[in-house]
Every structure is written in C-alpha cells, then in structure tokens.
Amino acid sequence: MIRALSDSGVVNIAVLVFREGLECILVLAALTASFRGKDTRYHRPIVGGVLVGMAATAVTWAIAVRVLSDLSVRVSALALQAATGLLAIVVLLVVMNWFFHKMYWTGWISLHNKRKQELVQRAGSDTNPWRIMFGMALLGFSSFYREGFEVVLFLQSFRLRLGGRIVLDGVLLGSAGTLAVAVLTFIVHHHLPYRRMLVVTGVMLAVVLLTMVGEQAQEMQLAGWLPTTNLPRLALLIPAWAGLWFSIFPTVESLCFQFAAGVLVLGSYFTARSLPTLAR
C-alpha cells in the first residue's frame, strides 16, 4: 500500500513539473524565435535570467519548508496537511483552467514579446547596453520563476504527506522530461507538437486533480473539517486500487467534490474552445 501511494505520488508530481516546464519552454521559445544575426547576443542574458529564476525557486522552496515547519509546532499535522492540500488544489485548478490558459497565451506571452521588441528597438539608441541586457534577463527570470513558484506551492502538500524523497523523485522525473523537450527545442531546433502536448498533459493533470481532490476531502474529514457520509453499497463496487491510485472513496462528500472539480475543468475547456485558437 505504501509503495503504491509512493509510486502514485511520483507520477503525479512528475506530470505537474513536466507541464509547468513545457509552458516555460513555450514562453522562452516565443521570446527567442525572432533573434537572428547580432540579436542572438540576447540569448545569454535570457539564459542568465532563467538560471537566477531557478535559484529563486530554490530559495522559495526553502522559505516554504521553513514556514510550514514553524506552523507544524502550532497546529496539528492533519490540519496542516488539509490546509496545504487546499492550497495545492487551488494552484492545480488555476493550472488546469483552460480559459485561463487562453488568456495566458494571448496575454502573458504577448506581454513578454512586446517588452522584448521594445528592448530591441531601444538597443540602437540606448547608450547603456547593460540596461538592455538586464531587461532581457528579467524576461528570462519571469518566464521561469512564475512556473517555479506555482510548483513550489503545489508540492508542499505532497512533501508533508509523502516526504521529501518522493517529491525529489517526482521532480527529477518531470525535470528529465522537460530537459529533453528543451534540448529538442533550443539545441536541435526541432518543432514539436506543443499544442497536442498541452492537451495530453492537461488530461493527465485532470486525473491528478481528481485524485488530489479525493485525498483532500478525506484529509478534511479526518481533521473534522468535513462531515463523512458513507455509502456502504457503493463501497462494494469500488476496488481497493481505485482508492490507492485515484483516491476514489465511497463517501458523498469526496465524490461530490471530485464531480465538481471535473465539471469545472471540462467547462473551462469547452469555454476555451469557443474562443480564438491558441497560438501555435
């Protein structure tokens, strides 16, 4: 049972890290796609900004761990797990909101591209080239740190529930997939089916979301934050592996929360499909 929970946790963490890494790669690819000739010199400050973003993400992780360690002295373990689980679900709901991502691609990426174009245009007249380089570095930093910050918040619930080793394994697995895509994108210059990859990882994240919602409902019931209405007849139909891998439990509360989360994700997907097509 413990091994199954660990394996499930590693897979769920890896999926989220890979998805966030994919989004970071798409933003960086949009930023660097138009650099030709002498403009390729801007690659270096952008990469530098990404590296600083990685360091800032590590610092944010350390701060989050310290804050939760201090809180664990004042509140019960179940209450802390329930609270961090709620935060993780909020983060995952934002990540899974397809309508939000529609705005993300038309807003966040276009904002970065607009800022990049302004910097390139100013390069010819600005007497201080370091100002331009610093601006490019900020674009690289914000592209990475936004995703890193979301991952840090999300992973705290897993760390408290499964331990740091499981989180590390999941992060390494997801990072390996991200690195492979980055190499194909920036070094091999191979155009990947990014839109399809977003949809596939979105479906996988939807499963992660439903699993986390089921786990969260159970933790809130154990902490006394939610009532527990058992469904004995349904318990006979739900196999044990469904509870271990997908947190499907025969209670009214957990099933209703999972149903609501599924409706929210599907609703945002079909709403997004009615809007103009995502940038490819």
Would you count the extended β strands for me? 0
Secondary-structure element series: HHHHHHHHHH
By oligomeric state, this entry counts as single chain
Average pLDDT: 84
- Structural domain tally: 1
- Uncertain parts: 1-5
Q: Summarize the main sheet.
A: none
From the alpha-carbon coordinates, what is the Rg to the nearest angstrom?
Answer: 21 Å
Proportion of residues in extended strands: under 5%
Structural account:
By secondary structure, this protein is an all-alpha fold. The chain has one domain. Helices cover 82% and strands 0% of the residues. The protein is built from 10 helices and no strands. The radius of gyration is 21 Å and the shape is elongated. The N terminus is likely disordered.
Protein traits:
280 residues, 0% strand, elongated, single chain, disordered N terminus
What is the topology?
Elements (H helix, E strand, L loop, with lengths): L1 H31 L10 H32 L2 H20 L1 H26 L5 H34 L1 H24 L6 H29 L9 H4 L4 H7 L5 H22 L7
In short:
With 280 residues, this protein is mostly helical.
